[in-house]
Amino acid sequence: MKNYKISKNVEEFLNGEVKLFIGGKFVKSESGKTFGSINPANGEVLATVYEAEKPDVDKAVRAAKEAFEHENWSDLTTLQRGNLMFRLAQLIEEHKQEIAEIDSLDNGKPIHEVLGNDIPNAIGQFQYFGGWSTKNTGQTIPVSNESFNYTKHEPVGVAGQIIPWNFPFMMAAWKIAPALATGCTVVLKPAEQTPLSAIYLGKLIKEAGFPDGVVNIVPGYGDKAGNALVEHPDIDKIAFTGSTAVGKAIMKKAADDMKRVTLELGGKSPNIILKDADLDKAIPGAFAAIMANQGEVCSAGSRLYVQREIFGEVTEKLTEFAKKVKQGPGLLQDIDMGPLVSKEQFEKVTGYIQKGINEGATILTGGSHSDKGFFVEPTIFTEVTDEMSIVKEEIFGPVLVAQPFDTLDEAIEKANNSPYGLGAGIWTESNKKAHYMIDRIQSGSVWVNCYNLTNPAIPFGGYKQSGFGREMGSYALENYTEVKTVWMDLS
Questions:
Q1: Annotation says 184 is catalytic
Q2: Strands 25-27 and 303-307: what pairing?
Q3: Is 450 designated active site?
Q4: I need a labelling partner for 323 at 20 to 30 A (CA). Which of 78, 117, 152, 290 fits?
Q5: Could you give the count of Cα atoms lying within 13 Å of 387 in the half-sphere of its Cβ?
Q6: Looking at domain 270-456, does it have CATH number 3.40.309.10?
């Protein structure tokens, strides 16, 4: 800690007892167990966090159910509910420096990325969905003169939400905001690798004036707290962001009592550069598409397809970009890339790099890693084949595989040759070619001459094994509502 200049509030928070947030109170776990949240820049314990297990999840779900049924929440007008969300957005803005420091320390990402992307996006979620709280309307449907028919949207109930470690604060906002807008209550389990900013958000939720129990936050491990949440009979809906393997397991467990489920899962996203692209935009854009956030992005452009005529030029310039990347602890102002989030992730990514070498791929640059902290150099592979593990499987690190192609249809075939379908990029100056490819690429998002742009008003989610349901935009409201049809006899 002494190497970093951090806010006094953050230092006090990290040195204090980081407790669960249940029923509007910060409480110790029933067992008294704790776990260390690790600073990935040096491998040392950053803060000690109380660990939620099944009894704590039971307590949190009970608090959320009571809050859902209590007049303090259920009888609020939609405008009052929206105003609470606007107040929370304001508080996040006022405390953005502290939140950014916590996420940078806990996750490893550069603080300028948190301040420039994660927190503005999180603020936008509560502002956007705060506005939706008064606009989630049904329909009146003309049937006959003898009947009056209408629909209304009602909250599902208690939502169990499980978020990943790559965008800790932003992912909490993506999940919580639409649930609150519809009138649901929430039990949130942050990732055990990065639980701190979610708990800090609990402080702001309380300060904003939300009724006790509307949002509960239970940091813990997936096999205990996560499973308890998925299997709890009083959880009406599960929202999960994370790996495809865990998403499949959640679906199976949720089926036992027909919980509503939405899943935002893995990706191995293609990024395609045509020979007519503006390379001054396309090359840095393709580099950022995989290297931003240390490559720990579900929609990262990890498979690069470049038209053969420009393949050498593109890969050469990408290599130059990679060699200029400055790595270091996230709180240092002049760094470009931080460490990977954990030792486990570090070992996974370095294992894939070695596997790529063993399978015969060529490293243009990178491949090295640090002895202290979980730093991995930006790595670019060429001379890869579609059967290689580094081409087929999600690595979730700063590792790019690049292949040439000749025709548009060949690029489309390669892009779709994956069990995933979360994101895709196209770089071209031809609208005709862009639309031809957009119509044929199987992906929840397609970025043209840009990559990984998001906005609270724009839906985000995947095809195939990248999951189903949509985060953000009006589509996200469907995740947390039931549609009730009403018939009234007028005869």
A1: no
A2: unpaired
A3: no
A4: 117
A5: 2
A6: yes
